[in-house]
Amino acid sequence: MGFDLTRVSPADLLFLALGLIVLLVAIARSSIRGTWTSDLQIPWPPGHSLNRFDVVLAAWVYLTLGLIGAVVAQSFFSGDPIASSQPAGGAVTPSAATLMGGTIGHVASIWILCRIGRDRFDGGARAWGLHVRRPGNQLAVAICVTLAALPICYGVLNLTQWVMEAGFQMKPEEHPSIELLRDGRGSKWLITLTILNAVVIAPIVEELLFRGILLPALAKWLKSPVTGLLLSSAFFGLIHYSVPKTVPALFVFGVILGVTYLKRNSLVAPICVHALFNLKTVIWLLLGWDR
């Protein structure tokens, strides 16, 4: 068993080629300018006074408020989960009611995380990274980083899938949201909420937590921005354990997002990268280009 490029869609090949071009241009730029040392250096996060309670609270609201919202919504509205091809015990596709409740819970999480960041970072929310300076430049950087991340994450994902299949005879599972968008099952509300969560809510709440709070806290406590970057990225990958094949690729993606935050001193940049990365997946699934 090996990699089969015939299974890759023409649209994916185009984006992978563009990503490789961006990577090659970045490498050539650093080589010509002789800036390898500074380019590879990981900056320190902004100054802050985050404590353990802040980090525990941030993790708690991220992990529980969405679940609480989903449970409360399901208790008020009827709607059975849509069947998933995943085995019993895995994640299942929620009903529109539970997804709406979960969305409201995550919006509340975003508000709490923003309050923590505003209060604990020296200089407030702007110093934390919640600012939009030169939006055109921010968007251009986000597009380039997204393109560069695609071939790297795609390669890690396929390598992981190959190891799981060839080495452990495991059939990699898909996330229920991917099944939902690929097959077009469920109501328009359910599909719309799934897209909203993937492209808007998840990028914001996850970047605020993992890059905005966890990375700076770990970097300060462990006295190393590199260690903070790697550990926060590891937590980011492991939180998606319900689909094991994505964990290594998401760890790598987390490193890319973390470097983007630290280099740009902006949370808006990794949020945009995360949103564009997910948007590409959503569009591919809706148009059937992932087959």
List the helices and strands and how they pair.
Blueprint: H1 10-33, H2 36-40, H3 52-76, H4 96-120, H5 124-128, H6 135-168, H7 176-183, H8 188-222, H9 225-238, H10 247-264, H11 268-287
Helix pairs in contact: 1-6, 3-4, 3-8, 4-8, 6-10, 6-11, 7-11, 8-9, 8-10, 8-11, 9-10, 10-11
Keywords:
mainly alpha; 11 helices
Written account of the structure:
The chain has 291 residues and is mainly α. The chain has one domain (46-287). 73% of the residues lie in helices and 0% in strands. The protein contains eleven helices and no strands. Helix 3 packs antiparallel against helix 8 (188-222) and helix 4 (96-120) runs parallel beside helix 8 (188-222). The protein is globular. It starts with 9 loop residues before the first helix and ends with a helix.
